[in-house]
Design goal:
mainly alpha, about 300 residues, disordered C terminus, elongated
Length: about 300
């Protein structure tokens, strides 16, 4: 015996069907961008390494009391990337450091985009004195050097991963706020927004049901672009000695190499692996972000 769906279930099923069709359409367009696919495959490999790090190298790779090599040992068959100043396996440290660098980059980007989206949507919706105040605050953050603000926050707060995430997130949101506000103003100028208000739709209804769905593609593209900047910022803070000293990250490895005098001594194997990892991941996120922008807004004309 067949059972009919309730009236409330039919719209939900239709909504999920449209979401699946939209996701399939997005993927069909995305995979036509060779650079974007290359970036996605690269990111998948790094994420797989980060997730499987406990199985591949184990947490004992960070232990300085049972290091497998001698301090600053050059690359060999046993240590393909050489050893750090404590004699630890650099290949294992780079794999283990991917966990922290990718996590901090993702969390900082999410925090930055969340702040920028809230500020941009509310400033574009309410207008008046509120928009003026929020945009002046945004302008102040835009003209201030982001790295200087992040260093100041990381200096006055305790040295931890949370501090790094907050320092990056609260200093990189103004660009997102500007873009989202411009998109919000464009959306709210459309006739159906006026009809929604005439039918009794309040501020929350208009922003959540009409404005936010239209700015989410822009937010998604902005997130992929900000992650690369956040990873670079985390590496910079760690290189300056403002990261969490209890964890291993790519920036922390570069800071250790600087303290060990690897630059002046010519110990290139101490510098190249973490530096290349940072550059490759940042480039991969940038390629993905450009591909997402091109798919969501074909008028941008991003090359493939």
């Amino acid at each position: 015996m067949t059972t009919e769906k309730t009236p409330a279930a039919r719209p939900r099923a239709l909504a999920w069907q449209r979401r699946r069709a939209s996701a399939a359409r997005f993927w069909r367009r995305y995979r036509t961008h060779r650079a974007g696919v290359l970036g996605l495959v690269t990111l998948a490999l790094f994420v797989l390494l980060a997730v499987a790090a406990p199985l591949l190298v184990g947490s004992e790779v960070t232990d300085v009391t049972d290091a497998p090599g001698s301090p600053l040992e050059s690359p060999s068959t046993e240590l393909p990337f050489g050893a750090d100043r404590f004699g630890r396996n650099l290949l294992g440290l780079v794999i283990w450091g991917a966990r922290v660098s990718l996590l901090v980059g993702l969390l900082a980007a999410v925090l930055s985009v969340a702040i920028g989206t809230v500020v941009g949507v509310t400033a574009g919706h309410f207008r008046g004195w509120y928009a003026t105040v929020m945009m002046r605050i945004t302008d102040w953050f835009l003209v201030m050097p982001t790295l200087v603000l992040a260093i100041a926050l990381a200096t006055v707060m305790s040295r931890s991963l949370l501090t790094t995430v907050v320092a990056i997130g609260v200093t990189t949101w103004p660009t997102t706020a500007r873009l989202v506000r411009a998109q919000t103003l464009a959306v709210e100028a459309r006739p159906y927004i006026e009809r929604a208000r005439a039918l009794g739709g309040g501020h929350r209804h208009v922003m959540s049901r009409h404005v936010l769905p239209h700015v989410m593609p822009l937010v998604l593209a902005q997130t992929t672009l900000i992650i690369s900047s956040a990873i670079l910022a985390e590496a910079t803070l760690a290189f300056l000695g403002l990261g969490d000293p209890t964890v291993v990250s790519w920036g922390g490895l570069l800071q250790d190499a600087r303290e060990a005098g690897a630059v002046s001594a010519g110990h290139w194997w101490y510098l190249v692996p973490p530096g290349v990892a940072i550059a490759v991941v940042a480039l991969a996120f940038t390629l993905c972000g450009r591909a997402v922008e091109s798919v969501l807004n074909p008028r941008l004309g991003v090359s493939r």
